[in-house]
Amino acid sequence: MTEGPADLEMRRRQFMTQQSTLQVRKQQAVCVRRAYKRYGTKANPYVILDGLNMTVPKGSIYGLLGASGCGKTTLLNCIVGRKRLNSGEIWVLGGTPGSRGSGVPGPRVGYMPQDISNLEQIQE
């Protein structure tokens, strides 16, 4: 069974109620709210992240596990500021990745992919 755009929109609305206060974001290492990332066109989207919420407390170690193509690398690239979400928000160490003064990407966050074949993506 495949889902159409209306089905995806209805599922996304279910996640819109989870809010993230500035205080909560500043206390976390990573705070992701309502992350939505797609490739392709609006008429023919390939949705990678759909309503993802994730919080990683400071001092924690997290691993992302999942099947090939499920969005792990895309999420990490958004967290370190190499890619942008289509909608939603990401905060890393109290700042928005890619914003002036956030240090992300840059000196505040290190990122080393497991597979060296992804190295070209982060060196662009």
From TrEMBL:
InterPro entries recorded: ABC_transporter-like_ATP-bd, P-loop_NTPase
Residues annotated as domain ABC transporter: 49-119
MF-aspect GO terms: ATP binding; ATP hydrolysis activity
Protein name per UniProt: ABC transporter domain-containing protein
Record organism: Rhynchophorus ferrugineus
